[in-house]
């Protein structure tokens, strides 16, 4: 009992733990943020091993330490796999102890998005094949996660990872594979993302589909997409090959943060008077944070193109938590009824011990508000063809009301003919 009280005694949340790190990142002080996170005692606890690797990994990524970042992410993946293996056995601990006391293994979407960040790191290191492997791991993992559940998640296919893998195949000259992933991405945006997250099909994806379908001579498919999209002109495959290609990935805002919502209900154990207790049910809920910016455009020379929303992580997080609520409730109900029965039996023998056990239950029954705090709210992308040369690339950002709010210039970017260049920018 004393051990469990000790475990539940720390009132600070992960939000409190990460606040100063986030502030340093917002100021652009990436090394200072790394130093802070490396010395967080709470994150050094064994139950937070996954969380530490995820948070430190993203800070190292923003700090340009791509190899170190991937080493941290690989640690997180290895630990999540080990915890998942234990979880599949449905151990008694999972049913008797609240999630906040157990080792954190990440929300389903967090277990997936780590591979997106590993892909980004490989892109920045110029290792396209390795980035492609990480993109493909995402949807394989989503299928494995969903196979575990009787009540399936809405988040069963990641459209953006398919779109990104299509861009990578395109960059490597694998047109047929690019078309397949573009088509699968389009289907996922059309069938799932629009309905569940309000994310439309990216405009540039439509042009990429038309170009690759035309290059492969898929005339029936090409005609169908022309009719659907209402587009008559697009770059030819020859123009694509000869031009310099630029892919801009903008990570915008901050993912919703978790808080605890608690509910109480009196449950009778049998027909006898006073044979019952008040059960406490505590669940995590997400609180949305509004980004400072809503839209962006990229300009290179005379070419300007708006960025398309490709992944609304905020909405995916909200929906994913909603999907697993029933599973959390089932475990909470079982745990609470067992504790209630134990409290009743203890109180029959010693009333004071019964009261102490009831107080212990109140202390330890709480929602797990840990999360991968530093994820963005959404991801937006531009995929455009530009004149080769050493160019300045300007990103201009609009506020929520549409007003011009901020701009960032990447100076002297080498844009080579027949090569795809990737730029990544994060705003908070």
Automatic annotation (TrEMBL):
InterPro entries: TPR-like_helical_dom_sf (IPR011990)
Superkingdom as given in the UniProt entry: Bacteria
Gene3D superfamilies: Tetratricopeptide repeat domain
Name under which the protein is recorded: Tetratricopeptide repeat protein
Taxonomic source organism: Vecturithrix granuli
């Amino acid at each position: 009992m004393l051990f469990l009280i000790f475990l539940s005694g720390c009132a600070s949340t992960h939000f409190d733990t990460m606040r100063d790190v986030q502030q340093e990142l917002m100021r652009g002080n990436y090394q200072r943020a790394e130093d802070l996170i490396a010395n967080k005692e709470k994150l050094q606890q064994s139950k937070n091993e996954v969380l530490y690797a995820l948070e430190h990994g993203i800070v190292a990524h923003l700090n340009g330490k791509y190899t170190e970042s991937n080493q941290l992410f690989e640690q997180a993946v290895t630990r999540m796999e080990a915890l998942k293996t234990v979880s599949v056995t449905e151990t008694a601990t999972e049913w008797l102890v609240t999630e906040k006391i157990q080792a954190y293994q990440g929300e389903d979407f967090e277990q997936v998005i780590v591979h997106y960040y590993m892909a980004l790191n490989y892109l920045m290191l110029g290792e396209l094949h390795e980035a492609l492997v990480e993109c493909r791991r995402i949807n394989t993992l989503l299928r494995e996660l969903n196979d575990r559940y009787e009540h399936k998640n809405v988040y069963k296919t990641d459209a953006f990872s398919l779109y990104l893998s299509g861009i990578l195949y395109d960059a490597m000259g694998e047109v047929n594979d690019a078309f397949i992933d573009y088509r699968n991405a389009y289907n996922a945006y059309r069938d799932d993302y629009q309905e569940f997250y309000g994310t439309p099909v990216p405009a540039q994806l439509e042009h990429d589909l038309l170009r690759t379908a035309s290059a492969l001579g898929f005339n029936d498919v090409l005609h169908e997409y022309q009719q659907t999209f209402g587009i008559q002109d697009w770059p030819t495959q020859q123009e694509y090959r000869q031009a310099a290609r630029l892919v801009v990935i903008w990570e915008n805002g901050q993912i919703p943060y978790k808080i605890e919502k608690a509910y109480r209900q009196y449950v009778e154990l049998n027909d006898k008077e006073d044979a019952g207790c008040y059960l406490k049910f505590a669940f995590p809920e997400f609180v949305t944070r509004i980004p400072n910016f809503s839209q962006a455009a990229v300009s290179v020379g005379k070419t300007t193109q708006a960025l398309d929303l490709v992944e609304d992580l905020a909405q995916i997080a909200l929906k994913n938590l909603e999907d697993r609520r029933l599973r959390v409730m089932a475990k909470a109900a079982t745990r609470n009824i067992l504790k209630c029965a134990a409290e009743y039996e203890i109180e029959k023998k010693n009333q004071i011990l019964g009261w102490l056990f009831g107080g212990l239950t109140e202390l330890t029954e709480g929602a797990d508000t840990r999360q991968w705090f530093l994820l963005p709210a959404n991801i937006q992308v531009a995929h455009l063809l530009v004149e080769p040369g050493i160019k300045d690339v300007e990103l201009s950002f609009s506020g929520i009301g549409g007003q011009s709010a901020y701009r960032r210039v990447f100076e002297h970017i080498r844009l080579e003919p027949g090569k795809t260049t990737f730029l990544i920018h994060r705003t908070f």
